[in-house]
From TrEMBL:
Keywords: ANK repeat, Cell membrane, Coiled coil, Endosome, GTPase activation, Membrane, Metal-binding, Repeat, Zinc, Zinc-finger. It comes from Rhinopithecus roxellana (Golden snub-nosed monkey). This is Arf-GAP with coiled-coil, ANK repeat and PH domain-containing protein. The gene is ACAP2. GAP activity stimulated by phosphatidylinositol 4,5-bisphosphate (PIP2) and phosphatidic acid. Residues 372-381 have a biased composition (Low complexity). The lineage of its organism: Eukaryota, Metazoa, Chordata, Craniata, Vertebrata.
Amino acid sequence: FKISQLFKKCMAALEEVEGDVAELELKLDKLVKLCIAMIDTGKAFCVANKQFMNGIRDLAQYSSNDAVVETSLTKFSDSLQEMINFHTILFDQTQRSIKAQLQNFVKEDLRKFKDAKKQFEKVSEEKENALVKNAQVQRNKQHEVEEATNILTATRKCFRHIALDYVLQINVLQSKRRSEILKSMLSFMYAHLAFFHQGYDLFSELGPYMKDLGAQLDRLVVDAAKEKREMEQKHSTIQQKDFSSDDSKLEYNVDAANGIVMEGYLFKRASNAFKTWNRRWFSIQNNQLVYQKKFKDNPTVVVEDLRLCTVKHCEDIERRFCFEVVSPTKSCMLQADSEKLRQAWIKAVQTSIATAYREKGDESEKLDKKSSPSTGSLDSGSESKEKLLKGESALQRVQCIPGNASCCDCGLADPRWASINLGITLCIECSGIHRSLGVHFSKVRSLTLDTWEPELLKLMCELGNDVINRVYEANVEKMGIKKPQPGQRQEKEAYIRAKYVERKFVDKYSISLSPPEQQKKFVSKSSEEKRLMIAVNSDEARRESLFCPDELDSLFSYFDTSSKLRSIKSNDSGIQQSSDDGRESLPSTVSANSLYEPEGERQDSSVFLDSKHLNPGLQLYRASYEKNLPKMAEALAHGADVNWANSEENKATPLIQAVLGGSLVTCEFLLQNGANVNQRDVQGRGPLHHATVLGHTGQVCLFLKRGANQHATDEEGKDPLSIAVEAANADIVTLLRLARMNEEMRESEGLYGQPGDETYQDIFRDFSQMASNNPEKLNRFQQDSQKF
């Protein structure tokens, strides 16, 4: 009976201890979580505090011009950095004392208690089962009775052993939890004690400096109040004065020490679609016109070199006091605040232009010496990768033409600029004036700094200053007008505008239309000649390609990036084998023997009327077929429409006549003067159609480079590619297909307005070089001249 009571008390005590341990575990888990949250918050506080300290340091660096502020802020930021370090140490010790120790106690000691508890509960259950089994055995089954008795005895021994272990683990846990909790908390409190002692020592050392700084601050407050009173007095005095704007006092100084000739606010019209006006700070400095949105911004250059610009009044817009500065690349519309300011700015710009010429007279020569050496003449046949001529080669070639050694308009020696649509050479000052006329009158390029396509350089060599001046200065001496001299910029502007825009000096002969029967005679004769030019020879051998079949396959596979292109390739794949498959020869056309015929071999023009009896459009039409560039320039000077259509001859244009004449330079001249490369005749054929029919590979290449539409079809529904395929002209087919593939590639990749693939550009440069320098390579098959 006593044993039963003792066992009952023991089990009650165990239940109480187990409940206490469970609650202890909850409390410790909560404390560890709170400690972790505190540490994380403390670290975040340290990060924010460090950012704040860095802000103080940035402010100290910004206040480098104030020694007191910089020194004070630097000391304070260093002290705060020390406190951040102390905080970091505190949180590290807290993590070790609270988090690490208590977590270890929960994970290790409490885990052992739980394991002992599980074993005790298991052996208790086994003992109860043994008791039940022993009670259920019948007395007449002696063997089962002995077995149940033995099991019960063994189970009771195991139960006593496990119970003693469990009680031992409980006693160890009760003893250890006291020491672990107190040890961790004591370590935590010592960490705080060390933290506050360190902070106290730190600020004790900083205290005297803070006291001195407070005294200085008191003096600063007094000085600031005194300065405020003085400024208020000055402000009151200034308000009593009357400031009136006096624009007459505005001056400019070309010899200013800082290089700024003149500066001030101007309104600038934006180049966007809205044409908004914005007020900007403009200045003329270092022979440039620049402006700034804000004074601290880097200047934006409007005019790189004042020598290349001109300035003029603008009275044709709604705003007052406007003037325009025209540079080689753009035009800038400006507005001053008054008429006097506008005049001052215009005079300052003009004076700066004159000064720029005096100071930089030799600059162009220096640039010429630094430019690339000659890459060979036009007739050298060089096969180098760079097909465009640049630098001294273009300069030397063009200056060899009669009259080109001096400026066409003012006579200054050694001109380095050219007007490519007029075919003349210009000095740098006259080139700037030509740019201000607009590209519909003159297109300016540098002979030393720009790249020159071979057909364009050939065009420059076909004309020249003497030829053009005989047209545009025919009546200068009769009118008693003298050409301007170098340096007379205003006189030059007036003279050049009168010469090329108003055309005052052109011989004003009376232009009368020829009688209808005479016009018909001219048309009839020229039509017969052109029919002979495009006669078909069914027995003529098919044209060979400059590319072998393997090269063509590799080219087309390089550009073949879509199923559409692959279908084009498959449809046209029979070009090369057409001459060998035994089929009947398709009609092919005959082209001129050479793109540049000698003067003596040009077609007799006696059937044509004298040019003075033709209207300018018809004169241009005739001269284009004759390859007579001087006559073409004369017709344009007399007002010929470059896109004039001959209604008596299928509405053919001068550009189509140039194609029939077989001259690449003539086509280039018309294109540079605004000819429409896509204007078609009544048969729906444009210049590209005619060049393809005649087999003029150089002209096809030129038109494709100038934006010809190769998708246009004639009345028979044929585009240039289908015509070239029928004629089995492999070179033209290659050019047309590559151009079409390149166009589709650019459209698929969204590269609108860009030249396209580098391989495509290289091939077209090769053809351009051959057409200008070695045309015989494009005309390798023989023609029987007697057939014509």
